[in-house]
Amino acid sequence: MKSHEILREAMDEPGVKAVAAALKVSPALVYKWCEPAATDSDPDQSGTRNPLDRVRDIYAMTKDIRVIRWLCNEADGFFVSNPVPDIRRTVDEQIYDETRRMFRSFSALLDEITSSTNDDPYIDTEEADLIRDKWEDLKAILERFVISCEKGHFHLKSRAMLHKK
Prior knowledge:
The chain is mainly alpha-helical. It has two domains: 3-52, no CATH class; 91-164. 64% of the residues lie in helices and 0% in strands. It contains eight helices and no strands. It has helices at 3-10, 16-23, 27-33, 51-62, 65-74, 91-118, 125-150, 159-164. The N and C termini lie far apart (51 Å).
């Protein structure tokens, strides 16, 4: 689904005028966000680049996953990238690398917690934000691993096959 289509459907419930008023923009602009944006290849389109396209562009330019994580967090969720098996490496190498990545991330989380409580027994909001970042990293790594397992990316030979060698 395209971004303007998502926005058009999202505007159904509250209404374009209510959204425009809450964002302090004109209803005409919100209507334009809900139409295909004019491009070099199709200048006759009447829409304009919408906020979803702009957020996508910000991420594409910065490659800073915190932009996406922040948005997911605002929606009471979290971001997990799609796992892609590396066909150049053996399954054993992939599992070893993923496991090592999990332990490193968990260690980084523990280090951040330890560092936050070294000077005093309290964790302030800045320290909590740093802990949150490490936690988001760990959650994403673990979720990608589980999804990889569920999708069958790690096909190990059966024990019977290993013992025949």
